[in-house]
Amino acid sequence: MPWNIEPAVALPEDLKATWTATPPARPERNELAAAALRVFSAWPRPGEDASDLIVINAHAEELNAEAQDALSYQIPL
After folding, report:
1. What's the confidence (pLDDT) of residue 29?
2. Which residues are CB-contacts of 5 (< 8 A; sequence separation ≥ 6)?
3. DSSP label at 3?
4. Cα 6 from Cα 43, distance rounded (Å)
5. pLDDT in tens, 12-64
């Protein structure tokens, strides 16, 4: 379930001017913020190998399907 968070964001003046001139609608704004956070979260951290992350992301759908399949064999305790 998505969190309902109302963040306060400090933007540089140039972005603030652009955002104010043509503000996206609320659903688009939420999608834009979520997409930006996803991109930021996928960025390699210090100590992570970016090439590994590229390989994982390239096979993400297959890996997720495999994980879902493995989880389907678990029985509730």
Report:
1. 78
2. none
3. -
4. 24
5. 898 888 878 887 777 787 888 888 888 888 877 777 777 877 888 899 999 99
For residues 4 and 37, what is the distance between their CA atoms, to the nearest angstrom? 15
Which residues, including other chains, have CB under 8 Å from residue 32's CB and lie 6 or more apart? Answer: 24
Whether the CB-CB separation of 44 and 50 falls below 8 Å is answered with yes
Residues whose CB is less than 8 angstroms from the CB of residue 28 and which lie 6 or more positions away in sequence, other chains included: none
Alpha carbon 73 to its chain centroid, in Å, reads: 28
Q: Six-digit token pair at 72? A: 């389907």
- pLDDT exceeds cutoff 70 at 2: no
